[in-house]
Design goal:
Layout (H helix, E strand, L loop, with lengths): L20 H8 L4 H27 L7 H4 L9 H12 L8 H17 L9 H17 L15 H27 L4 H15 L3 H11 L12 H26 L3 H9 L4 H16 L1 H14 L9 E2 H10 L8 H30 L6
Helix pairs in contact: 4-7, 4-14, 5-6, 5-7, 7-8, 7-10, 7-14, 8-10, 9-10, 10-12, 10-13, 11-12, 13-15, 14-15
């Protein structure tokens, strides 16, 4: 009879923790030797430069709206330019005593955008809310009703103009982009050709050219005595420009849908529009959420180009504020840092919202 001796098996290593700050650092900062080396280099640069930056921007900074205090030797950043010119930067050439109107209008628009991004408000009545808020926005900004003084659109500027151009052009461009994307995949040659010409023509020129044509060239083709407000012309130009780029993004999502799903929908007897609305578009849009948000962010920043047609949004309003006062002109870096933080806050918020939407639409694929 053979005797067997018990030999214990070597203990297996403990599983690597995949949650918590230590796991995050290991995964994102030290996953391999190249990533670890870059982490050390960047971390060392931050340790070296961050104290100097904080010393210039915070500890030695001048916060008083006094340009003479900013010129004292040893003073760091001059945030007094923001304290002195913030109303001009935020509201442009809008009449000073009436600037409560663009403040309320901007607050309403931002509240509408936040509500539109919140799932609890995704109801049919949200369209009505959009109509009411937009009407209130233009009533407050333009006036000439309910005892409000009239303010022409060429005096609108700053943050209200940036918010208006970005939000309204993106809202109008999205449905146009979907129709154009579907048209480019149509079996009808005439529709496909028209959509292709539109996309290639718009994408073949920079936004500056589109704004220039909308502002200066388009009125030349209008009947004598007939004029369209420059703000509307610029808004139409930005909308058409954004729709062309977004249409190509959506078309990429449409092409990614397997042909078998279309054949299955035809077998079930679904019409073309039923197939697009219930099967194709939901999946296609879910695939291209990051690209769509990338277009949104890019267009939000491109609104600064309207300065060339004498509409002064944030960047243009800052230039006006500094050019009109030579005492504060040397401190334009601080002014540009101020509007940079505003742009960053909006763009970062859109980026984080894009990540949230992407997670929501991909829940069905989770295993």
């Amino acid at each position: 009879m053979t005797a067997y001796t018990f030999q214990p098996i070597d203990a297996r290593p403990a599983p690597v923790k995949t949650e918590g700050p230590v796991a995050w650092i290991r995964t994102n900062l030290f996953s391999d030797w190249i990533t670890g080396l870059m982490t050390v280099v960047v971390g060392g640069a931050l340790i070296y430069f961050l104290p100097q930056l904080l010393d210039w921007a915070v500890f030695r900074a001048s916060w008083r709206p006094n340009f003479e205090a900013c010129r004292v030797e040893g003073v760091g950043a001059c945030w007094g330019v923001v304290a002195e010119k913030y109303r001009f930067i935020l509201f442009g050439r809008y009449p000073y005593e009436e600037q409560w109107r663009p403040f309320i209008a901007t607050a309403l628009m931002l509240g509408l955008l936040v509500a539109s991004c919140t799932r609890a408000f995704w109801r049919s009545w949200l369209v009505l809310v959009w109509a009411v808020i937009l009407s209130a926005f233009f009533m407050l900004m333009y006036g000439n009703v309910m005892g409000l003084s009239k303010v022409e659109t060429d005096r609108w500027g700053g943050l209200p103009l940036t918010i208006l151009l970005a939000s309204l052009s993106l809202t109008l461009a999205f449905p146009i982009a979907m129709v154009v994307a579907l048209g480019r995949r149509s079996d009808l040659p005439a529709i496909r050709t028209v959509c292709t010409i539109y996309v290639e023509l718009i994408r073949g020129v920079p936004l500056v050219s589109v704004l220039f044509m909308a502002s200066f060239m388009f009125p030349l083709f209008m009947p004598q005595g007939f004029s369209i407000d420059v703000l509307i012309r610029v808004l139409v130009g930005i909308t058409l420009f954004a729709a062309a780029y977004m249409a190509e993004v959506i078309r990429g999502g449409l092409q990614a849908i397997p042909k078998g799903q279309l054949e299955a929908a035809a077998t079930l007897g679904l019409s073309y529009w039923q197939t697009q609305r219930k099967i194709v578009l939901p999946q296609a849009l879910a695939m291209v959420v990051p690209s769509i948000m990338n277009n949104f962010i890019g267009l939000f920043k491109d609104t600064s180009l309207v300065t060339i047609v004498s509409l002064y949004e944030l960047t243009g309003a800052l230039s006006l504020a500094l050019n009109s006062d030579a005492n504060w002109r040397p401190f334009k870096i601080e002014g540009y840092l101020f509007i940079t933080m505003i742009y960053f806050a909006f763009c970062f918020s859109m980026s984080r919202y894009s990540i949230w939407v992407e997670k929501q639409v991909n829940k069905g694929k989770a295993r």
